[in-house]
Write a structure and sequence with these properties.
heterodimer; A: 111 residues; 5-stranded antiparallel β-sheet; B: 115 residues; mainly beta; 7-stranded mixed β-sheet
């Protein structure tokens, strides 16, 4: 049973601070990892993906992957109220498998 | 470039009926995946199509089926609807299927309510 675990939150972070979102996965065969953002009533939108151990930065967002610990995280620097959303972690084993999603972390950025 | 288009946006059906949902992928994308999203279970993979062939199927009963046409448009069908089928159904397209080199782009979804 492939599982992706996230703290459901809400995670409350003051504006301008760093928001840290965490995700663990059970399938050691997972090869690629994705972070999606979903605003209430909207569809998920891709923020970034990572497949190698270490950090990957894109603007204010940094994804971190540690395959040995089966752990992936997303850091949002200089958090803005517009970052308030549910953040979904997803993993992919490879091949024709679909993505396995966590249930998401609800992030609230307080002005 | 137009995004993924799903129709209809909202549907209300009665138990026992069947429903067909439609998805038009981003131009040039050959893979279409379908996901069910509910508050309790989150996003769950239904199936993926690539070049008119189903490549994989999630853990859903046979009442859930789909197909893909030669223009990459896809339809999903649910027969003998149950109350538990009420959910947001999301279609996602990608260039070549799920994976690091082919991220998914989601449509706005079809909200299905079964009464």
């Amino acid at each position: 049973q492939k599982e992706v675990e996230q703290n459901s939150g809400p995670l409350s972070v003051p504006e301008g601070a760093i928001a840290s979102l965490n995700c663990t996965y059970s399938d050691r065969g997972s090869q690629s990892f994705f972070w999606y953002r979903q605003y209430s009533g909207k569809s998920p939108e891709l923020i970034m993906f990572i497949y190698s151990n270490g950090d990957k930065e894109d603007g204010r967002f940094t994804a971190q992957l540690n395959k040995a610990s089966q752990y992936v995280s997303l850091l949002i620097r200089d958090s803005q109220p517009s970052d308030s959303a549910t953040y979904l972690c997803a993993v992919h084993r490879g091949g024709a498998d679909g993505l396995t999603f966590g249930k998401g972390t609800h992030l609230i950025i307080q002005p | 470039k137009a995004g993924v288009t799903q129709t209809p946006r909202y549907l209300i059906k009665t138990r026992g009926q069947q429903v067909t949902l439609s998805c038009s992928p981003i131009s040039g994308h050959r893979s279409v995946s379908w996901y069910q999203q509910t508050p309790g279970q989150g996003l769950q993979f239904l199936f993926e199509y690539f070049s008119e062939t189903q490549r994989n199927k999630g853990n859903f009963p046979g009442r859930f089926s789909g197909r893909q046409f030669s223009n990459s448009r896809s339809e999903m069908n649910v027969s003998t609807l149950e109350l538990g089928d009420s959910a947001l159904y999301l279609c996602a397209s990608s260039l070549a299927g799920s994976g690091w080199n082919s991220p998914l782009h989601f449509g706005n979804g079809t909200r299905l309510t079964v009464t």
